[in-house]
């Protein structure tokens, strides 16, 4: 059943990925994500429907605009592909469709949020505020329908992960409130599955962030250079979403002796 749902939802994931490329381009600029239609970032000509097919359109045009011939960044098909993989792949991991939909919806946001934070050093409120409202409403409905989610742990995950980063933001100049909101969202969704998932998401984000900091130093960036933490939070969410249970079990077996 999981494979069937993953295959069926893959085209939807690609379509959502195409939409998320619009989000990454327009939300930081304060533009509408609905109108006008997708257009070439260089010449501004609208992209024809035949060229707007996720991944395939970019590949057939060899990454160039049909109108002006300018290069179109490879980040667009990469965003489409990663969004689709995270979205449809969630249905392979979780038996409950209610849970799979929640994780799929969360993970599909991660590539776009990471891309925006890398380029603009922000995690947009236009993405975070609706998400912080929609996800708990959905999870409450899911629980009422009998889904295996825990609303108490949902609140605990929100408070623990978001609260921890809020404290860090208060005492550190390197952490922004956008990171706090993203951590709160990740904690909220994974907390509904169990706090061990929140622990994996947080731990993975810290590990990735540490590796990223070391790489930045090796590349000659100073210790006080601003490094966006959103991509590491997003990566931690992906690890928790696909391997959270396995990582948590491995950690408990290896480091915790009862």
Q: What gross morphology would you assign? A: globular
Low-confidence stretches: none
Q: Structural class of the helix and strand makeup?
A: mainly alpha
The number of domains is 2
Strand count:
0
Q: How large is the share of residues in beta strands?
A: under 5%
- Spatial gap, N to C terminus: 37 Å
Quaternary organization = single chain
What is the N-to-C order of secondary-structure elements (H for helix, E for strand)? HHHHHHHHH
How would you state the average pLDDT, rounded?
92
Helical content stands at: 55-70%
Q: What can be said about the biggest beta sheet?
A: none
Radius of gyration: 19 Å
Count of DSSP H/I helices = 9
Give the tags.
258 residues; 0% strand
């Amino acid at each position: 059943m999981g494979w069937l749902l993953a295959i069926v939802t893959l085209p939807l994931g690609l379509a959502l990925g195409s939409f998320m490329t619009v989000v990454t381009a327009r939300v930081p600029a304060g533009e509408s994500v609905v109108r006008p239609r997708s257009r070439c970032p260089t010449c501004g000509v609208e992209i024809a429907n035949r060229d707007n097919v996720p991944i395939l359109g970019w590949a057939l045009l060899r990454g160039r605009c049909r109108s002006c011939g300018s290069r179109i960044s490879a980040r667009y098909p990469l965003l489409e592909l990663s969004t689709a993989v995270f979205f449809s792949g969630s249905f392979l991991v979780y038996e409950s469709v209610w849970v799979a939909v929640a994780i799929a919806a969360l993970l599909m946001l991660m590539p776009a949020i990471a891309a925006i934070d890398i380029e603009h050093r922000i995690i947009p409120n236009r993405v975070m505020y609706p998400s912080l409202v929609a996800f708990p409403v959905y999870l409450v409905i899911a629980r009422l329908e009998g889904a295996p989610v825990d609303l108490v742990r949902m609140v605990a995950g929100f408070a623990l992960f978001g609260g921890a980063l809020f404290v860090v933001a208060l005492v550190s100049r390197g952490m922004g409130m956008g990171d706090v909101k993203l951590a709160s969202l990740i904690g909220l969704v994974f907390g509904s599955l169990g706090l061990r998932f929140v622990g994996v998401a947080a731990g993975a984000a810290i590990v990735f962030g540490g590796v990223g900091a070391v790489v930045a130093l090796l590349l000659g960036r100073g210790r006080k250079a601003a490094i966006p933490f959103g991509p590491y939070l997003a990566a931690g969410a992906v690890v928790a979403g696909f391997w959270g249970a396995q990582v948590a079990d491995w950690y408990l077996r290896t480091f915790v002796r009862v």
